[in-house]
Amino acid sequence: MIPVVETKSMSDDVASAFEDFARAFEAFKDANDTRLSEIETRLSSDVVTEEKLTRIDAALDDAKRRLDRLAHDRSRPPLSRGSDAAPRDPVQAEHKAAFHAYMRSGEATGLKRLEEKALSAGSGPDGGYLVPDTVETEVLRRLSAISPIRAISSVRVISGGQYKRAFSTSGPSTGWVGETAARPQTAGPALSEMSFPAMELYAMPAATQTLLDDAVVDIDRWIAEEVEAAFAEQEGAAFVNGDGTAMPKGFLASDVVENDSWIWGRLGAVHTGGAGFPASNPSDVLVELVYALKAGYRQNASFVMNRKSQSAIRKFKDANGQYLWAPPASLGQSATLMGFPVVEAEDMPDIAADACAVAFGDFKRGYLVVDRAGLRVLRDPYSAKPYVLFYTTKRVGGGVQDYAAIKLLKFAP
């Protein structure tokens, strides 16, 4: 991978963004302290103070978006023709050259010959042609950077249509015995199987023939940039709320029960007692949510919520008057809540009656993303003339793999 050369202007932008973010957060704390003081003295806050706090809160979110955008931009290699260099592997080099010829002019002879040689199924005009490994790697790297749930989950690459794994619903019987005591036979573990099928996800970027004829344009980088946003948006929604029909199954699509009644196959939820946070000591339910998770999962746990939920939680303080929410310490890092990273997933529901608006858990152990190896492109110069469409598909699946690793905060009695 080509290293990122950080220019002076980029460094200046990062410093400026952090200064803006720090100023906005200090202003937010001052305004919120004023609001809390007014509530203590008058039992209600001034309308002007509330409006000021809302404006500062919006400015804080804008500053965070700018930081996130800078982090994403800095993670990209510089746009150059460096990736057009021929790979050392002769087969990869041949595949790359044939792919570029297909993308620029529609000449598919080279790709047909390569995929026939590899006995690749589903290739040709019906299924499209496999992109070079470097392009697929670049697309997946970009998705990991901007798809929030993928970034914190386990990822498996498979060659078939689905991934299966066994799990133990009950472990073997064990016990203590003396040195010379008889060893009674123990029961074996009860095993079950989980299946994660890979579903088809597509994007259809368009290009002019003039762009494709330009030898300076890096075709690999262009296709990666064009599909990253479309894939990340669809993935992000499915990993949270997908119903498992022609798409991955999101973790919020799982059956939910009160945490005291938790059993395998369902996600445990801590209830807030109403359609919002409690009026008195609202942060107590967050503490309860954290300790609803077993200690073995807490060390790598994260909060997952959308910006509106984060905006509400940002106002909470502990018993010592310290804010529970803290801004990121550096570019590319997450804000923290009670010391745990906060992952922003805009597909999480807003705070409302019966909504599971906040999730907390070790998503590396709790949620699995399955990528089927192979990214395909089908060139279509006819459907949208004078533009050339590139029907790009990848197969991805997902689902909860450990129901004990994720807990939810449900806004319900």
UniProtKB/TrEMBL annotation:
Q: Which segments constitute the Phage capsid-like C-terminal domain? A: 127-411
Top-level taxon of origin: Bacteria
Localization per Swiss-Prot or TrEMBL: Virion
Where is the segment annotated Disordered? 68-91
Gene3D superfamilies xref list: hypothetical protein PF0899 domain, Major capsid protein gp5
Q: Which Pfam families match?
A: Phage_capsid (PF05065)
This chain belongs to which protein, by name?
A: Phage major capsid protein
Q: What is its main location?
A: virion
Which InterPro entries does the annotation name? Phage_capsid, Phage_capsid-like_C
